[in-house]
Amino acid sequence: MNTTLGGQVDAFLEYLGTVRQYSRHTLDGYRRDLNRFQSFCEQQNLADADAVHAAHVRQYAAGMHRAGRQGRSIQRALSAIRSLYNFLLRQGQVKGNPANGIQAPRQQRRLPKALDADQVEQFLKSSDDSSTAVRDQAMAELFYSSGLRLSELASLNVDDIDPRQGLVTVTGKGRKTRTVPVGGVALDAVAAWRKQRPQIAGEPALFLSSRGRRISVRNIQDRLKRRGRATGMHQDVHPHMLRHSFATHMLESSGDLRAVQELLGHANISTTQIYTHLDFQHLAKVYDQAHPRARKRDNGED
After folding, report:
1. Is 266 annotated in the active site?
2. How many CB atoms lie within 10 A of CB 120?
3. In this structure, are residues 182 and 161 in contact, taking their beta carbons and an 8 Å threshold?
4. Which of 73, 158, 191, 236 has its CA 20 to 30 A from that of 88?
5. Which of 178, 182, 156, 145 is nearest to 167 (CA)?
């Protein structure tokens, strides 16, 4: 039985390779994370795994954070440590798992850049009247007009759009449906596409591929990327960028966070705050303008 931490790590890695049959790539990742942890333990004079306590693991995670390691990387390292200790627990070599309940700092969400109004205009401008171009125009207009997710647009059926009311009903995350407005330009683009859309019996999809089937999400992504290059954009344009541009422009113009939340289909308003770069200065400005007791009274009382 291995009694040193180094020997215990080696035994665990051998188990992963021979019994669990992990790939070399996965094993290399475990090895790197556990070797770093082992080096930390040696610096703390922790000779074997049972000498490590939760405070040591927290100290190790905090050190990685100070060194600039990303939250995802820290979480992966903690996962490797937990797996090691679960293995040692089954072997009867430790009394507990000091990594249980310890979480990495939350990863800051990276957001796509929003296009400004001029860039959107450039991207949506088209003089091509081919069937494929008309379809792509309708898809692009819908993304920006209504802030749809990629999966939501791909799953649209012909009957989901009500041109009279100017509304589209989509199925979002968690199979939740919502109905959102569609702008007049987007409605015209969809109408132009419906005139050219092949009439295929039993096919309800609004947007079809060249094979007459519901267009795939990958195909949509590729079509938007090609369109961006054809219109001279200096960056690849993808569906999420158009959705983000929609949200950003709506919030900048209206300042109505709750309305934007509903339009985007976010269950939690905190998601909308991050998504739209909303800062607390803007919230304070809205509060000062809207709340009846936000400003001081004329007589100087608070």
Report:
1. yes
2. 19
3. yes
4. 73
5. 182
Dig out the tokens for 50 from the structure: 């049972």
Q: What share of the chain is helix, strand, coil (3-state, %, to 5)?
A: 60, 5, 35
Q: pLDDT tens across 162-172, in order?
A: 999 999 999 87
The total of other beta-carbon atoms located within 10 Å of residue 117's CB is 10
Catalytic member of 60, 85, 144, 149 = 149
Has 60 been annotated as catalytic?
A: no
Marked catalytic residue, from 243, 249, 285, 295: 243
Q: What is the pLDDT of residue 302?
A: 42
pLDDT confidence tier of residue 297, bands split at 50, 70 and 90: very low
Active site residue 173: yes
How many CB atoms within 10 Å of residue 101?
A: 10
Beta bridge partner(s), residue 169: 179
Of 20, 53, 173, 218, the catalytic one is 173
Q: Mean per-residue pLDDT for 11-25?
A: 93
Active-site annotation holds for 149: yes
- The pLDDT of residue 111 is 62
Q: Which residues contact 57 (CB under 8 A, 6 or more apart)?
A: 78, 81, 98, 99, 102
Q: Tell me the per-residue pLDDT of 42-85, one tens digit each, with 9 for 90 and over.
A: 999 998 899 999 999 999 998 998 888 888 889 999 999 999 99
